[in-house]
Write a structure and sequence with these properties.
By secondary structure, this protein is an alpha/beta fold. It contains 7 helices and 7 strands. A 7-stranded mixed beta sheet has the order 3-2-1-4-5-6-7. The structure holds 5-O-phosphono-beta-D-ribofuranosylamine. 5-O-phosphono-beta-D-ribofuranosylamine binds at residues 7, 9-13, 56, 108-109, 130-132, 197, 200. InterPro entries: Formyl_transf_N (IPR002376), Formyl_transf_N_sf (IPR036477), GART (IPR004607).
Length: 214
Amino acid sequence: MNIVVLISGSGSNLQAILDSLPHQHSSTPLGTPAHLHLPPSVNVKAVISNKSNVFGLERAKRCDPPIPTQVLALKTFLNRNPGSSRQDWEIELSNMVNSHKPDLIVLAGFMMILSPAFLNNIHQKPIINLHPALPGAFDGAHAIERAYDAFKQGHISKTGCMVHYVIPQVDRGEPIVVADVDIHKQDTLESMENRIHETEWRIIIQAVKKVLNV
Ligand code: GRF
């Protein structure tokens, strides 16, 4: 079963998926425990980024064999296609995704909001997204920072992260896996963020297992 992963940055969650696929050797392992491994029937077919020169692309290239990577930056697309729109970019992106015949599309640190222009052009395949907050808590951007501010103001005592199905409403799709993340009194933003990321690396694989039923 083919997975296509969309990224925008460091790709640590892409790495978590790669490390759960021992048959797709990855050279910078995060050390995924065996019970979180995915079967050889699953593979990452391609990694697509909306930004060039991000480390997530490097992680794919370091696999053996290297995983194909593609970049489709919005600004570059608009410059190369005068008169085109963001919707045209989304359709181009969905065509790129479809070309790999995915069984599952994973948004792992993908920072662009995808409208029905993209969603409607993906041929009936599940699209899932990782969000570093609990359902309905801090939708949208800078969720981790907003959760930390809420903690410092005494409004929350814990936070979390989730993987959910992607729908047009940002971060509002049906949750697939949700995990609470404790916030400690002495936490800095960084220490809390690290705890969230470590939890994300686990739930992203649990979500792939659940959706692909493997
Ligand atoms: C993750 O926290 C993810 O939830 C958020 O962006 C971050 C990306 O991390 N959308 P990475 O690129 O997977 O390292």
